[in-house]
Structures are given as structure tokens and as C-alpha cells.
Amino acid sequence: MRAAQISEIVKKTVPEIQDNEVLVRVHAAGFRHSDLQVLQGQFEIGIREIVLACSTSHCAGCNLTRRTTKRLDPRFCDKRETAGFHHDGAFADYMVADPDTIVRLSPSLSMEQAARLMGPWTSERSIDLTNGEGVAATVVCTDAGAANDFALKILRVRGVMGALGLLANGWHFDSSAVVFKEITIRGTYVASRQAPERMMGVLQTAGVRSHATKVPFEGIP
Questions:
Q1: What is the number of domains present in the chain?
Q2: Which residues of 26-55 are buried (b: 16+ CB within 10 A; e: fewer)?
Q3: What is the Cα–Cα distance from 31 to 143, expressed in whole angstroms?
Q4: pTM of the model
Q5: CA atoms lying within 13 Å on the CB side of residue 186
Q6: Residue 125 forms part of a structural domain
Q7: Is residue 117 very low, low, confident or very high in pLDDT (cuts 50, 70, 90)?
Q8: pLDDT tens-place string over residues 165-192
Q9: CA angle, corner 177, sides to 171 and 179, nearest 5?
């Protein structure tokens, strides 16, 4: 099968799966900030893209989430395995996934749209659309410090900012905006399975679509 490793296309055998795994035929994969960081040499990983798998269910992280949420959440497993980092990911014809972390797509959603939906965005229009009050929440998934500043700027009082980007020199926030507007900053990197399932429901109901630039496999940087 074909596989994209950082900046070159290689040939690999179709992966074999274990009894608790699923072999996924990949039709489209999104390019996001962590992929760009790989190209810039900030991470040394394999075939890109992320799917989480829990390698154990008896660590402190698993015990805590099981006790507090009544379910196992592989995102917080102390020994989690991440495709695209520890194992090959979705920039290939096939990939191996954990059945507990995959989501069924809405029948009205194209493969390209599904891949694109994992990249949130913000806009200057946000202020205009809220009569100057600001937005309730922003999500920043880039390693650009200016994006964090902009996200704080457009938040309303007691808004919430989701910080996903891994900045090479660490996060730096405008403390006055955080303090005087009583803003909450929440860090996250990968959504739970329940979050994209809820998102699929919203997309199906509201018909939300995003702009997507389609790049053929051979055009992967």
C-alpha cells in the first residue's frame, strides 16, 4: 500500500490486525497544525494522523476516568498509544484503529468534509455577529502565538478558550484579558468519541459544511 512519511511517499505492506483492532480503508485525511510541526522538524514521528488506543486499563489515568466518568477514556491513559506518533496513522491506504475510538460518519457527509472538520477556525466577523459582545468560546489549533491572542480578544466576558496548539516556546497569554474578563482556558488535544458523535448530529441537523481544499495523495508535502 502507499503511505506518506513526513515528506516522501513509500510502499508498505497492508497492516495486520489483532482481535481487538479494526482495519480502516482511508479515503481522506485532514492536514493540521501537528502535521506542519512534523514538516518543520518539531516532532519525529511516523506516518501522520492521530487515533488513540488504550494499551492498558489499570493505570492511574484509566482508574481516575473510570471512577469519575464511569467509563474508560483512552485519552488519559498513562500508557496510551497514538497513531501517527507511536504507530502509523491515516496518511496511508489502510490503517489500524481501536474500535472504541472510531465514529460512524453521517451519510450526508463526504469523506473530504469529515477530514476537514477536525480543524476549527475563528474569524474577525465573530465580533460583528455578536453585536460587539464577543463569542462564547474559541478553539485554537495552531502553534501561532498570535492566534491565541486573537482568540482571547474576541471572547466575551466569562468566555472559554480551548487551546490545542503545541507552541515550541510555550504558551503566552494576555493576563489582563484572562483576569478582567474572567476567561477560562482549557487545554485539550484529541476529542473523546462522544464529542464527534455529537458533532455529526449537529452537522446532519443544521447542514453545516466547511471549505476544504482537496489534495491528491501524490501531492502530500
A1: 2
A2: bebbbbbbbbebbeeeeeebbbbbbbbbbe
A3: 14
A4: 0.59
A5: 12
A6: yes
A7: low
A8: 777 777 777 888 889 899 999 987 677 7
A9: 95
